[in-house]
Amino acid sequence: MRMVIVGFGTVGQNLVRVLQSKEKQLLREFGFRPRIVAAVDRGGAMIDLGGLNLDRVLTVKQTRGSVAQDEKLGRPGVDGKEVIEEVDAEAVLELTPTSIVDGEPGLSHIKAALRSRRHVITTNKAPLAIAMPSLMEMASYNRVTLKFSGTVGGGTPILDFAKKCFNGNRIESIRGIFNGTTNFILTRMAESNISMETALKEAQALGYAEADPSYGIDGVDTACKLVILANWVMGSESSIKDVEIDGIRKVTSEDVKEAERKNSQVKLIGSIEDEIKVQPEPIPRNHPLCVEGALNAVSFKTELLGEVTIVGKGAGGVETASAVLRDIVDVRRILAG
Fold this sequence. Notes:
alpha/beta
């Protein structure tokens, strides 16, 4: 199974390490050995049609800043779309960062891969939030699959859980905490009576928040995940334009204290009911959604079982890489027939 990795940041590098550690297990349990034939980052590409040496890819990236700087296999200046169209592979792993403005370059990468009849695995939420129905239609037309387990919940299998575990049992609504950064910030505000600015600095120091945390704090990250859930699980044809978004910038220490007095905590809740929306809400401390720290928690209200909640880590390089690995195994099963 030949694969092209486009986007070789935290998730891509962690995925390579996971593939190294799981090589024998994948061969023993699933009968295949994944081969990375190209890796692409902002500087260009590193290509070997026989399969890249993974230790070498990681070393070049870490010591020289770009995989394209390899003396023999480096291709400086080559972009992801070129590599996708030119390099033979069964699957493209699109792991570039999210850009909700236009979904690029991930949207073009995914379209190019699907047109080339490559299976696609992505962790990039923006292309799906912007154009998921048309991308799924394109995948179907070209008889390939588009997999995206790592876009919602990181390593926690929220999408698979919702799609595969309620067969015949209609999901009526979904509510949850989908962003670990905001949950960490709100938890710290409640625990230590500190301001949002102080809690944010803590989150950044611990690696829970990016240098620019706007997507999380403004609710955009949660909105993207809701669109993916609405389309994949609820059968909607939605985009991020259909989501009512209110982040946590206006949440004050007094709001947090008021919730505490009522034995509740303020949480950024994403919901799919009559409408799709993101907003801060007080959640009773004894409710399953009232999780602390950087955890995610999602409750599915079902026709027959009532409310079912799944809780787990929502982010992290290794965690998201584990979701990509799940998708790789699924694609391999499809290829094996």
